[in-house]
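Structure first, sequence second, as always.
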């Protein structure tokens, strides 16, 4: 898949599935998820609230080359909650913060964070 380190396909697929799951659980208008284009990997994620698309990064780049390991699990989880909240709330206002913290709390209570940590350890060793 374009815009992904070859070792991150399983991790990205899991993140994509979880974004769809949490969007549905919060009735958020998520239409599609794509990997962050490599040239924009200085950002953790982006959201187009009008089209319902989220771009998410699972590994940063350093001087145009992939970093040696994927992003930390808490960064990925935080970005997921952050971008999902932007589907309904454009600005970082009180409504955005309530939605963001609600999604992040669900992520932290669920097994998502544990699964991301396991995948991180697996990827770190490749």
């Amino acid at each position: 898949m374009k815009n992904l380190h070859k070792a991150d396909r399983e991790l990205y697929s899991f993140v994509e599935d979880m974004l769809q799951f949490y969007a549905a659980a919060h009735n958020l208008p998520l239409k599609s998820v794509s990997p962050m284009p490599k040239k924009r990997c200085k950002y953790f994620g982006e959201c187009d609230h009008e089209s319902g698309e989220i771009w998410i990064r699972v590994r940063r780049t350093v001087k145009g080359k992939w970093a040696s390991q994927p992003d930390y699990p808490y960064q990925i989880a935080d970005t997921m909650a952050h971008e999902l909240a932007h589907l309904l709330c454009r600005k970082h206002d009180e409504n955005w913060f309530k939605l963001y913290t609600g999604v992040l709390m669900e992520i932290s209570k669920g097994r998502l964070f544990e699964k991301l940590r396991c995948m991180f350890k697996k990827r770190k060793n490749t």
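Margin note: The longest helix spans residues 9-25.
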